[in-house]
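Summary for the steering committee. The consortium agreed at its last meeting that each partner would contribute one worked example illustrating the joint modelling workflow. Our contribution is presented below. We chose a case with several input lines so that the handling of multiple components could be demonstrated. No manual editing was applied between input and output; the record is shown as generated.
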Amino acid sequence: MDPVLLESTLAQLGQPAFRARQVWEWAARGAQGYAEMSNVPAALRDELATAVPFSSLELVQEAFSTDGTVKALFRTHDGRSVEAVLMRYHDGRHSLCLSSQSGCPLTCTFCATGAMKFGRNLTAGEILDQALHFRREHEVDHVVFMGMGEPMMNLDNVLETCRRLPAVGVTHRRTAISTVGWIPGIERLTEEDMPIRLALSLHAADEQLRSQLMPVNDRYPLSEVLAACERFYAVKRRQVFVEYVMLRDVNDSALHARQLAEVLDPTIYKVNLIPYNPTGMYDGSPRATIERFRAVLEEHGLRATVRLTMGRDIDAACGQLKTASEKKSRAELDALRAKVDRLGS
Ligand code: SAH
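What follows is the complete predicted structure of the assembly.
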């Protein structure tokens, strides 16, 4: 439900201001439709049902993992694909991974979403509707903007969504925005009143290697990104989570770990090592390599954990969010890589 459209529609209908809040609270608490809103007059409910779609997203498909993870594929009114994931942890946490864009304009070489065509920024209503979809079945308590897209390139709508999330059950402190290091966005989040957590996708401490993995590093080099994260910490006093995807023989040696430890101040950063879900050009590092990498970071006093992989069996794991029509086979990607290599040589 688009809360802004809801407010303007109710205002046009000459309704008192509390109505919008009333209707929105029903939606935020997981109502299945307007019919349930028993304290809203029936005639008004009918008018709303035509003027303000209960959801801006059409559910196309839902997949259920054996580990309890659920992935939903939606379509927007103009035919764009959007995916979102619910992760249910053993400790009872229900965490949502939301998309901020359909596709992504950045072309990180290891990411499946990065390989698909960029569609457009999602509206706040479309981002909220991903959350409301799951809220209709489960209570939810955490949100990470780690689905499709770069949230900092659509920050107005992402922040508008964050403002509405507490009503859905997710406090700002339990909301995290993950970025490739889009400096203007980090700066805005630093100025923002909401105590939202910042997560940085880092993946290589060496500028050259990072540029290979994430071309955006040429625009916003890591040294400048880290300076922006440090200002965020100075103002917010909240640790920044670093995401580091473990790519076999690419960024996973003990030397890479030492380089990472050199650039990260342990009071400011905590590292989350992500087992890579092979979606294309790279292989994931073996468990033992990830463990060794983690040990080197810890020797340098840097806290590091290895991310639990959830929903692999339904293509819902990190970086796998990419719609069926855009999925490329391994062979196609290998051919593409060979072509890129030829062009580069
Ligand atoms: N654009 C933002 C938000 C997307 S988050 C960002 O990059 O932070 C997606 C996270 O999943 C990023 O940390 C990304 O590096 C990671 N990721 C992408 N593809 C992956 C894959 N195949 N396996 C594991 N992690 C992946």
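The first helix runs from residue 3 to 12. The chain has a mean pLDDT of 92.
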